[in-house]
Specification:
alpha/beta; Nucleotidyltransferase, domain 5
């Protein structure tokens, strides 16, 4: 099963595509869609949409796993990240790919086995599970791979067979 994990963001949207077969992980492709702060919000969202559609049509994931928003004190940032997240969900829906959402706690639990794990522990486990030479950077990319691994470990596959 091919899973696209997404760590939503307006400036940096991390993504990671993995293949999960027989309890084994294989990284296929990972990176980030970056938009400059000098660009208008509508153009940033368009850039994210076009980048995601290109990734989805190239790699044809069976499922898309996306991290739920973690709200901090900056409301403007939270709204912009929410808009970027909406673009990611819409991109999946327009391609008839089921979307699964996970909290940061669930991602840590799914990757490390402990929901209160430190960021470094999660990153090291991602590196080990995917047999990578180093932890992917920026952190958003490693986070996206973690979301994909979390989905694989969730056993949440029933919606993959919905009628399109």
């Amino acid at each position: 099963m091919i899973i696209l994990g997404i760590d939503p963001g307006i400036a940096i949207m991390g993504y990671g595509i993995i293949n999960y077969e027989g309890n084994r992980f294989k990284p296929i492709h990972y990176g980030a869609i970056k938009t400059p702060s000098t660009m208008s919000t509508d153009m940033r969202l368009k850039e994210i949409y076009e980048g995601l559609i290109e990734i989805i049509t190239t790699y044809r994931p069976d499922a898309i796993a996306i991290e739920e928003l973690f709200f901090n004190t900056n409301a403007k940032t939270a709204i912009q990240v929410g808009q970027a997240r909406g673009v990611a969900v819409l991109s999946a829906a327009l391609q008839n790919i089921p979307v699964f959402e996970y909290t940061p706690l669930q991602v840590k639990q799914g990757v490390v086995g402990y929901g209160r794990a430190e960021k470094n522990q999660v990153q090291q486990m991602i590196k080990a599970l995917l047999n990578l030479e180093k932890v992917p950077k920026p952190d958003d990319v490693a986070d996206a791979l973690g979301v994909a691994i979390c989905h694989a470990h969730s056993g949440n596959f029933k919606e993959l067979f919905r009628v399109k």
